[in-house]
Structures are given as structure tokens and as C-alpha cells.
Amino acid sequence: QVQLVESGGGLVQAGGSLRLSCAALGRTFNNAAWFRQAPGKEREFVAGIGWSGATTYYTDSVKGRFTISRDNAENTVDLQMNNLRPEDTAVYYCNSDPPANEYWGQGTQVTVSS
Q1: 70 Cβ contact partners less than 8 Å away, ≥ 6 residues apart
Q2: How high is the pLDDT of residue 114?
Q3: What confidence tens digit (pLDDT) does each residue in 72-85 have?
């Protein structure tokens, strides 16, 4: 059974930083990614990473502010988020890329105050 457990969210002021972590229990993913869903909006892609970590890709709105990384020995995928903005407020999820419906976890809430 596969379980993805996200952690590290919280409340932060605009301009602040948070580091999210995703622990994958039960399997490893070739490509992994972070997604987010803001209130009243559809879930969207945020950042992705290949197996070796050498390839990373981001949605335009977070380029230069967010950094995705992975530790295959620990089977974790992290998202370092700097210079946070109120529009980054959302529930953040990790998954494979492309995402598999059966792997969505509870997510972790990120709230950025202005």
C-alpha cells in the first residue's frame, strides 16, 4: 500500500520561508512533484523533479523562489519555499508526475499573510 505524507506547512508572513517534506511509504517514484490547491481553485502543478535530482522544473509563478529536491535513500521529496506571497496560500500535495489519483495524501496547509 502506497502512502504519501506531507508535512512542514504553517502560517508565515509574506516574504518568509517554509520547507515542506513528503515521505513516500510503500514505493518510490521516477518523477515526483509538488502540487497545490487554493480555496475555490483547481489543483495545480508547482514543481517536479526527476529520479536523479538533476532535472527540476517549475511553474512560472514560483521560479526563483521555490526549490525542489529529493533524497532517494530516505525516499523523501522536499520543497523549499522562499519569499512567500499571499497567493502561495494553498494546501500542498506531493505525488508522482504525472500524478496518480490513488496516491493523493492529506496535504499540508500553507498560509501566507500579507
Answers
A1: 32, 49, 53, 76, 77, 78
A2: 94
A3: 999 999 999 999 99
